[in-house]
Design brief:
8-stranded mixed β-sheet; alpha/beta; AAA+_ATPase; helicase; 17 strands; globular; Rossmann fold; 765 residues; ATP binding; helicase activity; 7-stranded mixed β-sheet
Length: 765
């Protein structure tokens, strides 16, 4: 640990604020030393017998912090709790994912309030899929617990701090350090420009795009040329970011065919490190595949790799024995591995819906890895441009990083856990304590101000100038509108009779049809009369132009007022409406009584966190009583996975079973569309079913990977999620009365035994 006297001034300031008892958000770039603040304050709390929870967004980062804290404070004082691993859970310093903390707070299993909770990467509050866990846990924390949030990218840190201060009643401060430990230099590269300042290259690219119809030629460079340029300029080691795993691996192997960056002594160090590693037998084929590449100083890193292999790449890069690592965005999250240079093969990514440029936050999260503190005077960021790309590329500036905006969303698990412990009034308080509500309060005030302004504008409009206008014109208009409404009502009634015309004689049908035509003509005449009557009254009036202008203005302002009032209504009750909508879904499914008391379905939901409704229905339908354990493994590996890439139809799951699940999904989607305006449940992807079946039968990992052409890390991740879900289901059978005696309990217990092979546990550490 760095001695206190050697800390930077912003680090000392942060520690002083925490000692004074304030909550704190530290906003400082990557590599400036936020970790040192945590180390010092944790040491002080442990010395006075306090407790700390350190939360992180990724299991990999949790494992890394667990190792670091164990080395610093001693293994007996540090514990780890993730979705699939529990180590020393009574320790005074616990490392866990934010979801685990949220679940503990919801279920009341956190025995004593911790002295301090550290939220690493607190900007995850804005994450669309997972941000709700951050918000819920912060809201649910007891007020006596101190909060420390860390972020490299939090432009609105003061707004987030004010929210925490308001809901916790404790002074919450911000320590901001804008200066990078190593300044960044942004560069661009094409064949024509070579390596030049980013803005200059971007201007040239834009000029080419404007002129290319005239026949100008502008060629991109390939990744090999980029690396050669960096090597010639002494700008290695480099991280090379791409947004496609296959290209990450292909680029690395292609570079390895043409380049070897290591000296003989460096190769020996790599070989010694690799030989000393204890690699599980099942992982060895994948490990050996990369060995030759690592011995050339080249590596690759993405979420589809096994943890052992990713860890080897990280360690060798940290030891400066890898000169180029091709990687995806996951390398920018949590892994503290700076390089001299960060390269972008492109700054355009596919986000699941469309191709778009990276946001400022996405760009600088990755670019921030450039520049090694104490080694480099400057960190280089190189963007490879392909002028043929159609997307307009923004000018990236750190001051333009997007603010943290709430992505709060209630899960069914959250809904039933709120109902279990709170009155509706307290639930409303909980919802109004969210960052979403806090951030939209200003929006509500703005809409209220605008509504008052528009009302004033309407009131200020001139009144009619004609002496008899109100008496003659408006009264007649009102009478015509009443007549029109009655005729429309009669038309609807007639159409209903005609629509259900079975049993009516042909003559009766003909008479009704004639009546319908008469009504339609009458309505058309009335509508025309209403539309044109103003002209009959006003044709020769000298005030006509002014009156018409006033009426147009009035109509425009009334439409504007209605739109603003609708927006205000939406904001004012959005979260309560979402909560009530989900309660309505649960009532219709029979999970809640009309007075919202729990039925058996709600008790099941309290113990599920993956596709809660779908899995609860499977349990209630007795599906797990009917399935053999290997079939259960094949099914569970499919649940909760994005269905958009559902290309492979499984051989092992019966077609009737799949139809049953798909019918259930359709039922849930229909319910949610009716009560919530859109579907949230029902994610099932059959692509991994056969792989899950083979795994449960005892097939080797390498055989399964070869059979299905999947990344080993993706398969491991899917198996771990299936195992996590199986453990949640087992908890239902154990804790909910009447379920332990069912066959499903025996089946799920055996499914867990078949899934939980040693290699899964080894890959979680």
């Amino acid at each position: 640990m760095i001695p206190y006297e050697n800390l930077d001034s912003f680090q000392k300031q942060a520690i002083r604020r925490l000692r004074e008892g304030s909550n704190l958000i530290v906003a400082a770039p990557t590599g400036t030393g936020k970790t040192a603040i945590v180390d010092h304050i944790a040491w002080e709390i442990l010395e006075r017998m306090g407790t700390i929870i350190f939360t992180a967004p990724l299991k990999a980062l949790c494992n890394q912090k667990f190792r670091e804290f164990s080395a610093l404070f001693g293994g007996e004082r540090v514990g780890l709790i993730t979705g699939d691993e529990v180590v020393n859970d009574r320790a005074p310093l616990l490392v866990m994912t934010t979801e685990v903390l949220r679940n503990m707070l919801q279920e009341g299993t956190l025995e004593d309030p911790p002295s301090l909770v550290v939220y690493d990467e607190i900007h995850y509050l804005a994450d669309v899929d997972r941000g709700a866990a951050w918000e819920e846990s912060i809201v649910l924390l007891p007020p006596e617990t101190q909060i420390l949030g860390l972020s490299a990218t939090a432009p609105n840190a003061h707004e987030v701090a004010l929210w925490i201060e308001v809901i916790k009643g404790r002074k919450t401060e911000v320590v901001r350090y804008a200066k990078r430990a190593v300044p960044l230099k942004l560069l661009g590269i094409t064949k024509e420009t070579g390596l030049q300042p980013l803005k200059r290259v971007l201007n040239r690219v834009e000029a080419y795009r404007r002129d290319r119809k005239k026949g100008s030629i502008f060629k991109p460079v390939n990744h090999l040329e980029v690396i050669s340029e960096l090597q010639a300029r002494g700008m290695l080691p480099a991280l090379y970011f791409l947004f496609n795993r296959k290209r990450v691996e292909a680029f690395a192997y292609e570079l390895g065919r043409y380049h070897s960056f290591l000296t003989n002594p460096e190769k020996r160090r790599v070989r010694d490190y690799l030989n000393a590693l204890e690699i599980p037998e099942e992982a060895r084929p994948f490990f050996e595949r990369m060995r030759g590449l690592l011995l050339k100083g080249v590596g690759f890193h993405h979420a589809g790799l096994m943890p052992h292999i990713k860890r080897a790449v990280e360690v060798l890069f940290e030891k400066r024995l890898l000169k180029v690592v091709y990687c995806t965005s996951t390398f920018a999250l949590g892994v503290n591995m700076p390089a001299r240079t960060v390269c972008f093969d492109t700054v355009v990514k596919y986000d699941g819906h469309a191709f778009r440029p990276l946001t400022n936050m996405e760009f600088f999260q990755k670019a921030g890895r450039a520049g090694r503190r104490g080694i480099d005077d400057v960190g280089y960021v190189v963007v490879r441009f392909d002028p043929r790309d159609q997307e307009e590329i923004p000018v990236y500036k750190e001051r333009n990083i997007e603010p943290i905006e709430s992505s709060f969303k209630l899960s069914y698990n959250s809904v039933v856990n709120l109902l279990a412990r709170s009155s509706f009034m307290k639930i409303e308080d909980f919802l109004s304590s969210s960052l979403w509500s806090f951030q939209h309060e200003e929006d509500k005030r703005r809409f209220t101000r605008r509504i008052e302004e528009v009302k004033s504008q309407i009131e200020a409009l001139p009144t009619f100038l004609c002496e008899y206008e109100e008496e003659l014109f408006l009264k007649r208009k009102e009478e015509l509108e009443e007549t029109l409404a009655l005729k429309r009502e009669r038309l609807l009634s007639l159409q209903g009779k005609l629509g259900g015309g079975e049993g009516l004689s042909p003559k009766r049908l003909k008479r009704l049809e004639l009546k319908r035509k008469d009504l339609v003509q009458s309505i058309t005449r009335l509508e025309f009369q209403l539309k044109g009557m103003r002209l009959e009254q006003c044709d020769f009036c000298p005030h006509r132009p002014q009156c018409r202008a006033t009426e147009r203005k009035r109509r425009h302002l009334n439409k504007k007022l209605q739109k603003l009032e609708n927006e205000l209504r939406f904001l004012s009750g959005y979260l309560v409406r979402e909560f009530e909508g989900k309660c309505a879904v649960l009532r219709e499914m029979g999970y809640l009584a009309e007075d919202d008391t729990f039925r058996i379905g709600a008790e099941i939901l309290r113990r599920l966190h993956i596709e809660e409704l779908l899995v609860a229905e499977m349990i209630l339908e007795g599906l797990f009583d009917r399935l053999a354990p290997v079939e259960m493994a094949a099914l569970l590996i499919c649940v909760g996975r994005d269905p958009e890439r559902n290309r492979i139809k499984p051989k092992v799951l019966d077609k009737g079973l799949r139809r049953e699940i798909e019918d259930l999904v359709d039922y849930l989607v229909g319910l949610e569309e009716r009560h919530l305006g859109g579907a949230e449940s029902g994610k099932v992807n059959w692509s991994f079913a056969d792989a899950g079946f083979m795994w449960a039968q005892g097939e080797t990992l390498s055989h399964i990977v070869e059979s299905f052409e999947v990344y080993e890390g993706d398969l491991i991740s899917a198996l771990r999620q299936a195992l996590d879900l199986a453990k949640q289901i087992k908890r239902v059978y154990i804790e909910v009365p009447g379920f332990r005696e069912m066959k499903g309990f025996e089946h799920i217990a055996e499914t867990i035994d078949r899934l939980e092979r040693p290699i899964l546990r080894e890959f979680s550490i």
